[in-house]
Amino acid sequence: MCYQRLVWLFIGTFLYSFSSIIAAAPSSQLDAVKEAAQAHVESLITPPEYGKLEVQAGNLDSRLQLSHCPSPLVTDVPGRQSLNKSVTVMVSCKEDGWQVYVPVQIKLLTPVVVARRPLDRGMTIAADDLIVQLVDARFQRGQTYTDGSTIVGSRIKRVVGIGEPISGNDICMVCRNDEVIITASGSGLNIIAKGTALSDGALGEQIKVRNRKSNRIVDGTITAVGQVIVKF
């Protein structure tokens, strides 16, 4: 009797363990499907040089019954999808004849100057007002900056919330009626003069400037806070 009980106990333990493995199989296979989808998207996108690529597969229906594929899963991005915010990856097992479509979210994070604290309109930006953070490219609008020292001394044109990227539209590195330094260059000569800005502008933008000495109006390109260059 004791021997029979041991035999039945062994059989029962084996069947319970086997049933547990079978029950866990679908969940394990679903994880493998998600991982395959993520790996496929990561292989298609080059991470930013100084940033980070984040890829996250969405949740799949836990009721899906998928067999364990005897060979590596096949992945593909069907159709003409753009690899921007999200993409759908087809994961399939040719031997067992099943396929699953997996939604994958994509984030390209790049270093950008953001506001360390709320910045109100009319404020002059100080170094302590800024910090560099990794920001999703989807939330970057227009010209952004990677070096805070570039825009220190600029004035805020519109309210910027804490943690928000600072764009060229949010600031003026040269503001209307500001005194500016004009550097006129050409033919190996550099002439420096003072002038008055006739409009607002950010780095690299062209604005009208009045030379205070000659009263002549010229087009200058903003090179730094309070500075423009004129070609002649």
TrEMBL record:
Protein's cellular compartments: Periplasm
PROSITE patterns hit by this protein: AFP_LIKE
Similarity-based family: Belongs to the FlgA family.
Function according to Swiss-Prot or TrEMBL: Involved in the assembly process of the P-ring formation. It may associate with FlgF on the rod constituting a structure essential for the P-ring assembly or may act as a modulator protein for the P-ring assembly.
UniProt keyword annotation of Cell membrane present: no
The protein's name: Flagella basal body P-ring formation protein FlgA
Biological process (GO), any one: bacterial-type flagellum assembly
Organism name: Grimontia celer
InterPro entries: Flagellar_FlgA (IPR039246), FlgA_N (IPR041231), SAF (IPR013974), SAF_AFP_Neu5Ac (IPR006190), SAF_FlgA (IPR017585)
Signal peptide bounds: 1-24
